[in-house]
Amino acid sequence: MSIRELRYRLLASVVVLCLGLMSVSDLVSAADEPDLAEMEEIGPQIGVSTLNLNLSAVPGEILTGAIEVHNLGTEPEGVQVLLADWEYDPSGAVSIHEHGTVDRSLAGMLTVAPASMMLSPGETRPIQYRIEVPPDSVGSFWAMIMVRSEPKVISSSDFGEGRTAVFAASKTYGIKLIVTAHSESEKELVIEDSAVEYLEAGEGSVLEIRSLVTNTGLAHLELTGTVNLINEHGDSVGAARIGRARVLPGYQRLVRTTLAGQLDPGFYVAVVVLDFGGDYLVGSQVEFEIGE
Fold this sequence. Notes:
Helix content is 5%, strand content 58%. The chain is mostly beta strands. It has 2 domains: 4-181, Immunoglobulin-like (Sandwich), CATH 2.60.40; 184-290, Immunoglobulin-like. Strands 1, 2, 4, 6, 7, 9, 11, 12 and 13 form a 9-stranded mixed β-sheet that branches. Strands 3-5-10-8 form a 4-stranded antiparallel β-sheet, with no helix packed on it. It has a 4-stranded antiparallel β-sheet with strand order 17-16-19-20, with no helix packed on it. The radius of gyration is 25 Å and the shape is flat. The relative contact order is 0.17.
């Protein structure tokens, strides 16, 4: 996989410089604004060596390492390195917060250097990180290392009389860092609720199975699982795997999977079994009926 395929996301910012009486909104709507595809081609060309770091530690240990930043383009690129906090919502989407504001943040344990750098065309340089794990640490702690390019002007439009709209793009990578002082006894998962929804469309019918889980332990979990569909005669009439999902300690996650195919009228049971890497499996079942 190439570095560019590891891109986290492109954050395109519009910087508007205006003088005179024309409003900012007028300037933006009147300007020939470039699209995101154009920004990707001619905007900042930086890449990073990873977007996820899951590290194990012994309480009291000091962890060190590096993340490589690459200038993939033909022009110098300025880069800033920032720290933030993050969390998943139940759907798995990531939200970013000020560093030190999320419970179990790595704030106070994590330092990075340098805070900024200038990369020549084709150059690769490391960002060094250091994590001092307190002796009384148990479970997982996390943070995000933000690698952000300096804004690069994409285009500008001159409206005369000193009024100009300038469009710039900046690319930001968010590297999710999780450190776990491992203890198997700290891995706990509960299935709060499971539900099914049957979308009937002949041969294109789909049964969706959803389970809301809560990580009640202190360790970050990566879970997988299976769903087995059983009819009223006790026969298995379908099965599917549940893809890998991550759940931070104290958080919930909605786990989904689907079974394709039309179901005959009758009673069914969907049996959900999840493996979260602990000493036991968790399961639930949902009974439902397909009408005539």
